[in-house]
Amino acid sequence: MMQKKQKRNKTSALRRKAEERFAELKPATAKKSKGDTASLIHELQVHQIELEMQNEQLRQAQTIIEDSNKRFSDLYDFAPVGHLTVEKKEGSSRPT
């Protein structure tokens, strides 16, 4: 229950900041004509679709990465021969 209250406080603080920024911009947006408003709405809708498309591309890339990682892990874990992994320590010139 305490976490919900903390989350609400964080959300409301962020909401307050957003409302303050909007209030600063409001006079500039209040002077817009209906045509300007329609143009802005169109731009926002296009950006929304663009973001949705980018999200889908990111989901597809994530799936490809996960599949590739699983294949690599399976090859590495089930190799019929022994193997050794050598990593270079940060700040060291020699592998450990």
Order of helices and strands: HH
Rg calc? 26 Å
**Overall 3D form:** elongated
Structure classification: mainly alpha
Chain-wise SSE layout:
Layout: H1 2-30, H2 34-77
Verbal overview:
The chain contains 2 helices and no strands. By secondary structure, the chain is mostly helical.
Main attributes?
96 residues, elongated, mainly alpha, 2 helices
Describe the structure in brief:
The chain is mainly α and 96 residues long. It contains two helices and no strands.
